[in-house]
Amino acid sequence: MATTSPPTGTPATGTPAASPQTLDAQDKIARLRAIANDFPDDVEPKPLTQAERQLASRTPIVFVEKAAIFAEAAPNIGVALSVDTASLRDAIASDLAYGGVVDETRTLTSRMEAANLRKKLKAVKVARGIYRVAKGYVTTDLGNAVTPHVDEMKRALQRPRKKKAAPTEPPPTAPPPAVPTIPQQK
């Protein structure tokens, strides 16, 4: 009795082999994580609040430089406020140096999203064409066998409906204040 081995490229466990795109993506993710781990940051960074993010992004780095210069020019105030001008200058240097890295990362993200969308658009156009043909095909006698597939495509294409918010009753309105009437004299 001869034993058969699974086809090459398919693991023996019965799970399908990863696609070339998945393997490439996993490699790129590993490299990006290595870059992220190499990036200088606090040991245990506290998550920033939305207000903290806005404050930091809206304040120009030139303002931080001017504050450092002032703290050095007026040492009495700098010492009284415990200003560490070295940490201010470190923040300035970091913003100037790594700002380019952040910009390049955003550009990379944008390019990757665009490439994925272009591939998806081509596939979507083909899939919608198949769906248009399939809707007509199921109306024929031969189409009875594939009607469930067309129904599944239809359900997958529909967006979930928004749940209507329960109507709230308006607050009761108070009757208008009574206006005293002045009797008219005859």
Mind explaining what this structure looks like?
It is a single chain. With 186 residues, the protein is mainly α. The protein has helices at residues 20-38, 50-58, 61-73, 75-80, 85-137, 147-157. The longest helix is centred in the middle third of the chain and has 53 residues, at 85-137. The protein starts with 19 loop residues before the first helix and ends in a 29-residue tail after the last helix.
Query: Fraction of residues in helices?
Result: 55-70%
Beta-sheet strand percentage? under 5%
Q: Look at the helices and sheets and give the structural class.
A: mainly alpha
Task: Please outline the major beta sheet.
Answer: none
pLDDT < 50 runs, ≥5 residues: 1-7
> What general outline do the C-alpha atoms trace?
flat
The radius of gyration is 33 Å
End-to-end separation: 127 Å
Number of strands: 0
| H and E string | HHHHHH
Number of distinct helices? 6
